[in-house]
């Protein structure tokens, strides 16, 4: 989804790695989204005053804020959110939407907040074991046209999960493999756990590109407020 892991941050880091080295041979589910099939976003609250605060073992806490605003990016309508780290004064924009049964977010491909790729992070009609792929490409100076591939699946559904003193029920777990190179070898994994209508409660990213770049990131929901 990563700024989606933290939902956007780890996805962005993973995307950058893959954009340097990946080669995709087939279209992902994110490549045929219908602008006429956009649905109201109901994965988590869009109402102003709603927020989700996350703690991380590797970094500083951050908060996601709902802004009760819609915006159009790449021809698709998204609900607008903002994310702020405790040590950073400004906000990072985040975009989440729903296209038919597909829940989508935007990955910032170059960090400039104007070059985004659609990313399907979950399917509403998914059942345990269902899988899907996301693909994309972008042009970079000195690299030419480079590609992104992730393979995702709904690993668990309807589970109970305890984080610190909080217990969550009806949790869904989505696992993604990050693949690169001409033979699509795995360079990392992304995992997130969520409760629909509440939001993401835990995220993990583990990336190792030939031991030249490593990332191990985990964050968890520590508090939230949902405006009814």
Q: How are the elements arranged and paired?
A:
Layout: H1 7-21, E1 38-39, E2 51-56, E3 62-73, E4 76-85, E5 92-99, E6 102-108, E7 116-123, E8 131-140, E9 144-163, E10 166-180, E11 185-195, E12 199-209, E13 213-225
Short description, anyone?
With about 230 residues, the chain is mainly beta. The protein has a single domain (about 5-225), classed as YmcC-like fold, CATH 2.40.360. It has one helix at about 5-20, and strands at about 40, 50-55, 60-75, 75-85, 90-100, 100-110, 115-125, 130-140, 145-165, 165-180, 185-195, 200-210, 215-225.
The dominant shape is: globular
Number of helices: 1
Indicate the CATH topology. YmcC-like fold
Strand fraction equals over 45%
Whole-angstrom Rg: 17 Å
- Secondary-structure-based class equals mainly beta
Give the strand tally. 13
Question: Span between N and C termini?
Answer: 25 Å
Number of domains: 1
Q: What is the C-level CATH assignment? A: Mainly Beta
Largest sheet: 13 strands, antiparallel
The topology string of helices and strands comes to HEEEEEEEEEEEEE
Key descriptive features of the protein:
YmcC-like fold; 1 helix; mainly beta; globular; 7% helix; 13-stranded antiparallel β-sheet; 228 residues; 58% strand
Can you describe what's shown?
- This protein has a single domain (7-225), classed as YmcC-like fold (Beta Barrel), CATH 2.40.360.
- Helix content is 7%, strand content 58%.
- It has one helix and 13 strands; from the N terminus they run αβββββββββββββ.
- A hairpin with a 3-residue loop joins β12 (199-209) and β13 (213-225).
- It is globular and about 45 Å long.
- It starts with 6 loop residues before the first helix and ends with a strand.
- Mean pLDDT is 86; it is low at 1-5.
């Amino acid at each position: 989804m990563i700024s989606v892991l933290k939902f956007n941050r780890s996805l962005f880091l993973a995307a950058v790695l893959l954009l340097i080295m990946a080669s995709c041979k087939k279209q992902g589910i994110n490549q045929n989204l219908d602008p006429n099939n956009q649905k109201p976003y109901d994965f988590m609250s869009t109402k102003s005053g709603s927020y989700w605060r996350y703690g991380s073992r590797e970094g500083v806490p951050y908060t996601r804020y709902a802004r009760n605003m819609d915006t159009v990016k790449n021809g698709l309508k998204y609900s607008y959110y903002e994310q702020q780290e405790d040590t950073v004064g400004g906000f990072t924009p985040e975009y989440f939407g729903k296209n038919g049964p597909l829940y989508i977010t935007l990955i910032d491909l170059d960090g400039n907040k104007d070059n985004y790729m659609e990313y399907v992070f979950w399917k509403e009609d998914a059942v345990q074991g269902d899988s899907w792929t996301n693909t994309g490409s972008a042009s970079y100076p000195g690299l030419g046209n480079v590609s992104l591939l992730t393979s995702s699946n709904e690993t668990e559904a309807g589970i109970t999960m305890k984080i610190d003193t909080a217990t969550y029920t009806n949790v869904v777990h989505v696992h993604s493999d990050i693949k690169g190179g001409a033979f699509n070898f795995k360079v990392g994994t992304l995992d997130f756990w969520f409760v629909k209508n509440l939001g993401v409660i835990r995220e993990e990213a583990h990336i190792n590109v030939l031991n030249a770049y490593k990332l191990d990131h985990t964050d968890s929901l520590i508090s939230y407020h949902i405006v009814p």
